[in-house]
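Reading a protein record of the kind used here takes little practice once its layout is understood. Each number in the token line that follows is a code from a learned vocabulary of backbone shapes. One such record is shown here in full, so that the layout can be seen directly:
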Amino acid sequence: MKRLLLFCVALFGASTLVAQELFPDGTPIDKWFFDKTPVKQRTLGDRYVVTDHGVVRDSLKMQTKALQWVIDEAAAYGGGVVVIPEGVYLTGALFFPQGVHLHLEEGAVLKGSDDIADFPILDTRIEGQNRLYFAALINADRVDGFTITGKGAIDGNGLRYWRSFWLRRKWNPKCTNVDEMRPRLVYISNAKNVRIEDVTLRNSPFWTCHLYRAERVKIDGVHFFAPAKPVKAPSSDALDLDICRDVVVRNCYLSVNDDAIALKGGKGPWADKDPNNGSNERILIEDCTFGFCHSCLTCGSESIHNRNIILRRIRVDEATRLLWLKMRPDTPQNYEWITVEDITGNIGSFLYIRPWTQFFDLQGREDMPISYGANITMRRCEIDCKTFFNVRRADDQYLLKNFTFEDLKIRAEVKECDKSQIENFVWKNVSVE
């Protein structure tokens, strides 16, 4: 073996011997994940600066029709980049066809209307179901190579929606997230080779960035924000990955009043039989900073299968939970091969696994589907937290096995850990003070 190694060095050079990185189940991570080449604007076609085509800068009037005209004009001439220059542009829903990209220059703000009438109702995907609901501010369906780039911002202008939601919830505590009419900020569906770089996505009325059935997605340097005070931005998830494969989230800042990154894919007692639902696979989240959020990484609550998920080299400040497995007793779920490593900062709960019963509905199914959480590793973390191990076993609802805690340095107000909650729970060099 040593002779073979020396022969390889002589023949190919030492650089070829870099260890192959692996997903948690041992399969190789493709080199595509590590290509950090930024989007090259000049390769995307002609530039269409919107102010050169009738869009008014800093106007208090709606610019939806004028902006959509520029988008459609670019598509008619073979595609290109719709450029938003410095200024504020008020708009309702915009739709990007194949070959048309969005670039926001520094100081540019696409500001969403706070009137839901500016967002048409259409067939879409929301909360684990395909149904009629409102369009997002930015929409792209059945696209290959779509990009959103630049130093500007997409602002959902969500304050009016947030206030309306909490007022309705006070009047009817059982109102669901979709009962209060509000748009998402970005919705990209049935897509491949998506790139979102450097932009700020803020103040979304509902979910911030929702990707449904997307493959080969890179999200790099994006700033996600929605406030927790003085008015909470309800359900303002930063990033919802809904049946997505081969995704990189890198160098981002995420601070929202809900889950930062939520893995979704369907809900309901027969969700695994619905062809509209499916798995999230091969998701790499690295070198990000998380501010306030309900959880850094969440599996659920509309989720049936997540496999080969990595969260690593993360700084956390004020997150309520680091890893949260939402176990719905009305949905068959399988969360497997998840690795969380090299995390620093402070959180509420290090690991949180409990039944999730919000809007519980077996829809007439007589038995309760059993869910699973398995092959989950948390290692090389130095964390201050309130509760180290917030896990409740529920064998009639879900089974937990093959967890590993390794090289952990934890300072916790509640440090107890009942290892019996998980079958085959391995500890290696764990310090909890």
Observations:
- The radius of gyration is 22 Å.
- Confidence is low (pLDDT under 50) at residues 1-9.
